[in-house]
Every structure is written in structure tokens, then in C-alpha cells.
Amino acid sequence: MTAISIVWSILLDPTIGMYAYWFKMLGFENIQLLNDPDLAMPLVVLMSIWKNFGMNMIVFVAAMQAIPDDYYEAARIDGANKVQQIFNVTLPSILPTLGFCIITSTINSFMVFDQTYVMTRGGPMFRTETLAQYVYMRGFAISPFRLGYASTIAEMLFIFIAVISVLMYCYFTERERKVL
Length: 180
Description:
Layout: H1 2-12, H2 18-25, H3 40-65, H4 69-77, H5 82-93, H6 95-110, H7 114-119, H8 131-141, H9 147-179
Helix pairs in contact: 3-6, 4-5, 6-9, 8-9
């Protein structure tokens, strides 16, 4: 993630970045993408989505390839069209995989540190500072080091992530039971 963040920082750099060059060619001057408080976090989110999209897509493709062709043949014999096959065969079959991808993506979104630290250092105006970065800054970077405070926040973050993950897991397993 650090290497990808460095690459995106270079791409978004106002002096040498490719995107700044494109904006200059379109007539915009002095575009500070990562220094704009309204654009910095959406750009970090966009980069994170771009980075994780490939892994999730591979998992979804593997799940879809694991669906037996007999299911689709039975749906065709019953008169289901392509849209009905998607909603009645494909989506119920990949529901566990969908749950896995959503739960892991949610956990990863709460643990964002590398992207914001490398790209913006939490700025501008603390708009991209995440909770993981806040724990790091209070515990190890800002003097006096407040390790107890940072540890408490980290523990609360762990409990919050665990509760959200368990709730999402229960939701998806209940949905899966209803489908079967």
C-alpha cells in the first residue's frame, strides 16, 4: 500500500503529476488536489478502492465460476430469463462470497493508515486523519508520548471493528439460511 500511495502522490503532485498536467491542458491553473480539504479524502478513498478492486473481483469471479451449470440449465428450463437467473441463481450462490468481501473491506476501511500517512500526513486541516493514524500520532509521533491514551483508543477501535464484523457475519449467515 505504501508503494501505491507513493505512486498516486506523484500522479497527483501539482508540479510533476500527470493529473496536474492534464488539468493545465484543460485550462485549469495551479490545481492542488491533495492539498484541497474537500478533495484530499475522496482521492485517498478512490485510490484505496482502485487498489482493492482487483482482489475482490478475483474472489467474485472464482465464486461465480464455482456455480454449477446445472443451476442455470434448470433455471432456463423453468423459463427464467438472464435477469431472473442473476437474481435467483447467481446472487444467492455468491452470497457467502459477497459477505466475505464486504466484511473484509469494512475491516480494512477502519484500519487505513498507510495511504493517508504517505499521501497527506493527515492533512490538510486533519481532513484525512484516520483513527489508526490518530493512534499512531498520539502514541508515537507527538511529544509527550501518550501511550496509555493511544492504547485505549486502539482497544476501542478493535472492539468496534469486532462488533461490526460479528454483526455483519450474523446478518450474512442469516441471509444465507433464508436463501437455502
